[in-house]
Amino acid sequence: MHDKFFTQLAALSAFLSPYLYLNYHKVGRRIWTYGVAGALALSCVMMVTTYIYSKGFTETSAATTKRLSGRIVGQGELWFLQSGIGGPALKWNAPLIDRYVESLSIKSVDLFALQNSLGPNYFSNGYAPDYLRASLQNNAGTVTYTAVTEAMGLVLFGWVGLALMMFCLGALLGLSSAYIAYAIENRLISSTIFAAYIYTQLRISIVQATPWVIISIYSIRWQALILIIELIVLALAQSNSASSAGYGRRRRLFRRPIEPSSNNAVERTLD
Fold first, then answer.
1. Model pTM above 0.70
2. Angle at 79 between CA 78 and CA 85, to 5 degrees
3. Whose CA is closest to 157, among 90, 243, 62, 240?
4. Distance of alpha carbon 39 from alpha carbon 28, whole angstroms
5. Cα–Cα distance between 44 and 64 in angstroms, integer?
6. CB–CB of 127/144 below 8 Å?
7. 81-85 — which CB contacts under 8 Å span 24+ positions?
8. Whether the Cβ atoms of residue 27 and residue 17 lie closer than 8 Å to each other
9. What is the pLDDT along the chain (271 residues), one digit of tens a residue?
10. Which of these, 223, 211, 227, lies nearest to 105 by C-alpha position?
C-alpha cells in the first residue's frame, strides 16, 4: 500500500505540473504549508500500512518491522538478486542484446519477450519458482516485476556500462521533461499532449527495461502519426495568428482620420 501511495502521488504531480510550472513563485511562498500537509498525508498512509502489516497492531514491533522491511526491499528485489550475483566491470552480452534488437521489429512483442527472456521475463524465467512464474504468466503482464532496468543493465553491460547507461537514460528523461516544460510555458495544448505521451512511454520503457515501448517500428509509426497531427494543428494555429495580425495591421493602416464634428464646433465672437 505504501508504494501505491507514492504511485498516486506521482500521478497527481503530473496533473499539477502545469500549474506548478507557471506559478512557481506563489507555490514557493507556501512551500512550508504544502510540506506540512504532505507530512500529515504520509503519516496517515504509514499508520494504515503499519496497521495492515501488524495485523491490527497485534504483532510485536520486531515482527512488524521485519514484514515492513521485507515489503520495502521487495521493490528492489531484482537489483538485490543481480548485484548479489555480480558482474564484470565491462561487459557486452551479445546474445541478449541481439534479442533486444530483434524485439524492435516484432509485432507480438510481449509473447516474444516471454519466450526469449527479455525485460522482467529474464528474471522470472531464470530465477522465479515455478508457481510464481506460472502466476506471472497467467496474469499476462498485468502483474510483473518493477525496477528492472538497473538489474538488466548490469546483466548487459557490467558495472561501468550500467553507470553509463543510467547517465544516458537520465539525460533522455531530462530532455523529455524539458519538452513538457517548453510546451506548458508556450501554452501549446497539442505539444503538451504529445510531450506527455513521449515522457510516459519513455518512463515505462526505462522502468521495465522494455525499449520496444518507445523505439520499436510500431511505436515509432504511432508517434509519427501523433507528430503529424501536432504539426498540422500548429500550422493552422500559426496561419490563424498571422491572418489576425495582418487584419489588425490593415485596419491601423487604412483607419480614417478623425474629423471634428461641425455640431460640436463653438464659434467665438470677435470683440
1. no
2. 95
3. 90
4. 17
5. 17
6. no
7. 81/123, 81/127, 81/151, 82/123, 82/151, 82/154, 82/155, 83/151, 83/154
8. no
9. 445 556 666 666 666 777 777 788 888 888 888 889 888 988 888 888 888 888 888 888 888 887 776 665 556 678 878 888 888 999 999 999 999 999 999 988 888 988 898 988 888 888 877 767 776 666 655 566 777 898 999 999 999 999 999 999 989 988 888 888 888 877 777 788 888 888 888 888 888 899 999 999 988 888 888 888 878 877 887 777 666 655 555 555 545 555 555 555 445 454 4
10. 211
- Cα–Cα distance list, 205 to 93, 132, 133, 174, 210 (Å): 20, 23, 22, 15, 5
Interatomic CA distance for residues 69 and 53, integer angstroms? 10
At position 244, the amino acid (one-letter code) is S
Cell numbers placing 20:
506548478
Q: Which three cell numbers stand for residue 142?
A: 498485468
Q: Which residue shows C-alpha cell 491572418?
A: 243
Residues in the chain: 271
DSSP 147: -
Which residue is it, cell 553491460?
157
